[in-house]
Fold this sequence. Notes:
There is one protein chain. The protein is built from one helix and 18 strands. By secondary structure, it is mostly beta strands. The protein folds into two domains: 4-137, Immunoglobulin-like (Sandwich); 154-233, Sandwich (Immunoglobulin-like). Strands 2, 3, 6, 7, 10 and 11 form a six-stranded mixed β-sheet that branches. Strands 1-9-8-4-5 form a five-stranded antiparallel β-sheet. A hairpin with a 2-residue loop joins strand 6 and strand 7. The longest helix has 16 residues, at 4-19. The N and C termini lie far apart (49 Å).
Amino acid sequence: MKTFKQIKTMLLLVIATVTGINTAIAADPNWTVNPPDFQYNMTMLAVINIDCAEQLSPSNRIGIFMGNECRGTALTSTVINGKFMASLFVYSNTVNGESLSFKVYDAANDIIYDAHLTVKFQQNASYGTAISPYVVYSKFPCLVNKQALPANNLITPDGDGINDFFAIEDVDSYKDFALTIYNDFGLEVYKISRDYKNNWGATYQDKTLPDGAYYFLFKNETNGKEYKGIINVVNPD
């Protein structure tokens, strides 16, 4: 007779196969990093989003990797305004440019996900804030919920015709809305007063912006209706 643990493992494997999610069954991961081995560091404040749902557990974990080498890890045990965040130091021996990947550990279901995004290391950079943390997603694209703006939350400006621009569903129905996009330091990197045409491709002053989380405000100045959210920019390697 199969034990409960064996049955649980079999069910999780079936779910992963049916849904197509890239997962691995795992115990609490032993991800470690030794800071003295590295010359440079940056910081990140991040939340986990699994299957388009933000996770609310202090026991989940984020790991940041260069290949198979862990460069930073933390539990999502920092709680601010109801959000469960991981506060990470990320390390490198290259001052900038290394492309780092993410893994997330879902403690409740004992599963490790390969997150579907990367970030480039930059000495002394800071990704995410307490108000707008960096979002590590298990899948892309994730359309926001019905109360929010129906738009993609990822731009990969590589010219392949997929997620090259910030695109809003049925954008012509929002002609009276102004769109403003800010970087993590609050600098305005894009603004249009009305009639946005789904044509912002992560550029500022004709240059492609670096990887990171950007924040948008989409507002109708006449009736005051507005949407706020995050756009993750991931440049091709």
